[in-house]
Write a structure and sequence with these properties.
This protein has about 325 residues and is an alpha/beta fold. It is built from 10 helices and 12 strands. Strand 3, helix 3 and strand 4 form a beta-alpha-beta unit. Helix 1 packs parallel to helix 2. The radius of gyration is 19 Å and the shape is globular. It starts with 11 loop residues before the first strand and ends with a helix. Bound molecules: S-adenosylmethionine. S-adenosylmethionine binds next to strand 3, strand 5 and helix 10.
Amino acid sequence: MMIDPFDRRISYLRVSVTDRCDFRCVYCMAEDMTFLPKRDLLTLEELDRLCTTFVGLGVRKIRLTGGEPLVRRNIMALIAGLGRHVRTGDLDELTITTNGSQLERFAPALFEAGVRRVNVSLDTLDPARFAAITRWGKYERVMAGIEAARAAGLKIKINTVALKGTNEDEFDRLIAWCGSEGFDLTLIETMPMGDIEGDRTDQYLPLSHVRRSLEERWTLTDLPDRTGGPARYVRVGETGGRLGFITPLTHNFCESCNRVRVTCTGTMYMCLGQEDACDLRAPLRASEGDDLLRAAILEGIGRKPRGHDFVIDRRHARPAVARHMSVTGG
Ligand code: SAM
């Protein structure tokens, strides 16, 4: 069992399986990102060992993310392998966060492996705007991917980063679309992570304002639902759909944080918004047994901070954390 210094039980592991991505979303990465040398990455076998050790320590939910998890070569071998923990009941959920670009190809295999829900990041329903936000993304491919995921039996949650002056006029349309398609929708505040071209103050849209504005047109009723993540949900009366808000800036929920994150090089971050980290690659590689790895994980959990302190305003010109979201995984 992993219990941190603030008595929070750690049951949710998010693993960034690659820092590479086939999109260059403007709020996430610079266009000319430098990625890690491939030799620094944990192998798929090492990632399996790492995840399995966490499962042994009480993790009940694993989310694979990135970068774009589905562009990592042979990723289905890892996902299919981890599916054994779902079948034995040691894991409640194995899931991924994806930009959807490869879903058409992988959706049936994901379901086969034991994945039942996927988060698809989609910030707009306008193809031209989609091209502007993602720089390299193909809107039709993502739509085909979403359709394939649905056909494969996967439940879909759409994640939308709320961007001032970019997609703030589209939330009504996204709520209506997700409601009619039967998808959950979660709006996310942009977080100050990593240097990008441009100023985050210009992009930041407090979701407290967004919610107030939505309530002029939609009947939003708070729900007690928790999916083990940071979102807080409401029911949209007019569509019957579920709408989530992830508000690390206007209201953080660190007191109920149950997560840690591991990068593709085996660095564990105990908080998305803090620099403190713990190397798991050296203990993983130091011996064939998992004792050293387990000890390193527990030592890191013992340092999990109370919470993050993201701030976005003109006085804080630098990002709160230097690494990009694609390193730790969103
Ligand atoms: N490539 C996958 C995807 O697009 O979902 C997984 C990784 S991506 C980094 C995960 C999520 O983080 C996406 O929903 C993305 O929009 C979000 N994200 C990236 N940078 C962010 C930032 N600075 N603030 C808030 N969300 C961000």
